[in-house]
Amino acid sequence: MATLEDIGVAAAINSLTAFAFLVAFAILRLQPINDRVYFPKWYLKGIRNNPLSSGALSKFVNLDFKMYIRFLNWMPAALRMPEPELIEHAGLDSAVFIRIYLLGLKIFVPITILTLVVLVPVNWTGKTLELKQFKNLSFSNIDKLSISNIPTGSKRFWAHLVMSYVCSFWTFYVLYMEYKIIATMRLGFLASEGRRPDQFTVLVRNVPPDPDESVSEHIEHFFCVNHPDHYLTHQVVYNAVKLAKLVEKKNGFQNWLVYYQNKYERNPTKKPTTKTGFWGLWGSRVDAIDYYTAEIGKLSEEEDAERERVICDSKAIVPAAFVSFKTRWGAAVCAQTQQSRNPTIWLTDWAPEPRDVFWDNLAIPYVEITIRRLLMAVGVFFLTFFFMIPIAFVQSLANIEGIEKVLPFLRPLIEKDVVKAVIQGFLPGIALKIFLILLPKILMTMSKIEGFTSLSSLERRSAQKYHLFILVNVFLGSVVTGTALQQLHQFIEAPTGDFAKTIGMSVPMKATFFITYIMVDGWSGVAAEILRLVPLVMFHLKNTFLVKTEQDREQAMDPGCLDFATSEPRIQFYFLLGLVYSVVTPILLPFIVAFFAFAFMVFRHQIINVYDQKYESGASFWPDVHRRIIIGLIIAQILHMGLLGASGADKSTTPCLIAQPILTIWFHIFCKGRFESAFVRFPLQEAMVKDTLEKATEPNLNLKTYLHDAYVHPVFKGTKLDKPIAIDEEENNPLVPTKRSSRQGSKHNSDVRSEAHL
């Protein structure tokens, strides 16, 4: 059982590690050679150029020693940019993501102060753990600051009950105000942002087959009939997987060709050569420029043939399309209504912005999606609960006794004070962190199998799975397996009447493990994020050995982005710990406050200078953030109720706590009804205002030209696609042309009536 001294050693280790990372970052960021690693966002925006230098050495090392004196000035600089400017610079998604850390500070700073002042003295003076009947129970001085130190049946538990309500109601207030602020920010962002293709476009899936019309003709016919005044054009979706591979291979060969051409221009006396085998490692040696020119010619012919096949082959067109409308109002009506009496066909939803589209999943049928999601739900269940096995094993070893039993020959080394302190205060968090590194890619793959059509929805779905995993394995798994195995002998020896009492005292004792985890992951981990050690090393390796062209250099400068799928569930874990231990072991809260404050500053700096987001969803993830905090709050309330009951509190206290989860569920339903629509629907009033304003300011706008290739598959960019000509809006023909033959009563009759009047 980790003591205060062990926690102090762990705090010193992690504080020094974090400080070392920060000092290393502050020095490395000043060197001109690293400028593209630590300020890539400004390069991508075209605002920053290579630092000026006046000598050979100064190209690599900053010789201005005055700047080293101010090496920590990045901290106030990260906080200086106002939020409106941050939204304009980095987007609403990034600005709102940072507010999750700010939300943690708003919730836990007042709670920390209040619980330390009220509950710590109440717990410390309980003196229950010093009684003789608990002499066999492992505990430390930290446990004396927890609820475990309160005597059975004591009136002191009323202080914990009152503080539980205070924490819940304060969390309600902060969550409500933040939801209101974010909803207002989102609506303001949507109202003020410039014209974007997704504002006029709807994604249509599960287009039913028609024997007389192609997919493209069927889509045009359907929307000309059902949206005659607003339909503008559409873009069908092609299955172009093979074509995409050819294009990627050709681009790689073009980079090699440019590289060898540049090399020859620098040294015209010697023509460059290469081997024709894998990566140029073996095979016959040939003229590099001639070889790559010929290979590019062959690939160009294959690419043209494959492109022609995809365009002409009806089987290459999937039953989905991006349908664009003349107005935002028309797109909003279509996206937010049911198009057919059969709810499984003509499925419409707002189109993701073009860079947010995940093209591989657009062709999956409705029934198949349902089956896939059922199978993945089963897979997530087994993954979550089978991962408990290694977690339990690690937790059983993450104490001195467990290691000595498994590895008895290490006992002389482990019994040394320094080694013992490191194992108790450092090893558990590191072991758990290693397990969690393996998980995100598995969960993202499972989300892709489920058939989501945008990168943002994939990340939100993966975050949901990751949150469930952390909740079950990291929190519940650590508490149940770690505490139960440590106190197993006491549980067996305890009389039947004292069993619940022992449970009530043992569960809070896991706070020491979570304190070490917060320091490892929340302090050292965040500091390592700003150092960007892996991107730094990879950039210089690529720049030295692999960079052949300016395009390669830009790719070597890859700034990365906020990984919502893993970052947000990790933040939610800290919310959960804070809410659970606010009443149980308040001494844990300062560590959580330190994490939120440090992470807020670090990630604000990264968003300003480093990360370049792949897409912009307008903070559509906030309802998920709110819901998961509510889940954490309900779990905390249930655990508080169970702990008070198991600890022998006054029988009147437990019924008083039953109302808390009910109030929390009511609060969530209220907030969902009040704010969530702003994140899933676009008000027709706002759409009409933007349309009217645009018509007044740009009366000659050719919207069809603007949307011409917005949703063309990336491999078709810059090429011509045979697109059907939409019905002339000035034509007064009351009938919509169709190739469908008359087969009254046939099972192939379409939902669309060709004789429908405009």
TrEMBL record:
Biased composition (Basic and acidic residues): 748-758
Ranges where the record places region Disordered: 727-758
Residues annotated as domain CSC1/OSCA1-like cytosolic: 199-361
Residue ranges of every copy of the CSC1/OSCA1-like 7TM region domain listed in the record: 372-644
Ranges where the CSC1/OSCA1-like N-terminal transmembrane domain occurs: 7-178
Gene Ontology cellular-component terms listed: plasma membrane
Membrane topology: Multi-pass membrane protein
Transmembrane segments: 6-28, 100-122, 157-176, 374-398, 418-439, 466-485, 573-603
Pfam families xrefs: PHM7_cyt (PF14703), RSN1_7TM (PF02714), RSN1_TM (PF13967)
Gene Ontology MF: a single term: calcium-activated cation channel activity
Localization annotation: Membrane
Family: Belongs to the CSC1 (TC 1.A.17) family.
The protein's name in its UniProt record: CSC1/OSCA1-like 7TM region domain-containing protein
The species this protein was found in: Fagus sylvatica (Beechnut)
